[in-house]
């Protein structure tokens, strides 16, 4: 028996539902969407949820306040698994559902499947240098799915359903915390995960002028530019949306060019899915060369312009 009977999916944004439902379809006979408020209902129907259950949003409350209604519904409807798209707030919701069910959350799953009626989930451990597999014996399995799993899930074969939204019985929020204000933050719109070619820069890059040199190569390669964590957090040379690795974005590009970065596991785990890795580093013993298909030893300030000129010729 390699399918569960009933899988629930739960996300914070409309964008997460198609991939959640696609994952649900691989492991469940029936896939039902749980939506917090109305904003995600259309996305759940559009992706073909077999049922759409709506927990009323709590006015000025927080997203996690809806957990109470979802907890009650999990007890009543008894899904075999609840697949949740990971966000900070959904981690709290997942923890509360799991606690109420006297189980725990399976975190940051990069792969889920079913064997003999039990859900198995793989997730990264030791900063991304190894994988661990957990088996949930007896339901419900409360699983937070990683961004990487959802981004790479094929949406082929999904078609809209006419499931009418069913309101879950309201349960008053018990937190006593209300939302006072929401302010927009200026964030850079970049979709590194979708880019086929990515250049990632590390602490070898020291200034805006250095970044311009790398930009020249990026333009010649038609590549997006990302970075290591210290470049985005600390040196602040690039935005946080651009850092790659275990705590940042996970990639599967055709080409990954590592420029002036040492190749620490926390960064490189974000690029292990790359088809080809090229490294440019002035230290011939830099660990990144062990992971690269092609390596160039030298100062990127000399090498990047030469490569760009060759590509543009
Ligand atoms: C819990 C935890 C989570 C983390 N998560 C992440 C994460 O998600 N992503 C991430 O990136 N990091 C993460 N880190 C940080 C990570 O461990 C490394 O510290 C970081 O990736 C190193 O960045 P770097 O390669 O840019 O810098 P360094 O390790 O300092 O390497 C700089 C490299 O540049 C080379 N260089 C210098 N000048 C030049 C030049 N002119 N030309 C060519 N090469 C040159 C040097 O030889 C050196 O190899 C995490 C750390 C922890 C503890």
From TrEMBL:
SUPFAM superfamilies: Adenine nucleotide alpha hydrolases-like, DHS-like NAD/FAD-binding domain
Superkingdom in the source lineage: Bacteria
Pfam families: ETF (PF01012), ETF_alpha (PF00766)
Known function: The electron transfer flavoprotein serves as a specific electron acceptor for other dehydrogenases. It transfers the electrons to the main respiratory chain via ETF-ubiquinone oxidoreductase (ETF dehydrogenase).
Domain (Electron transfer flavoprotein alpha/beta-subunit N-terminal): residue spans on this chain: 7-183
Self-association and partners: Heterodimer of an alpha and a beta subunit.
Gene3D superfamilies to which the protein is assigned, alphabetical: HUPs (3.40.50.620), TPP-binding domain (3.40.50.1220)
Protein name: Electron transfer flavoprotein subunit alpha
Family: Belongs to the ETF alpha-subunit/FixB family.
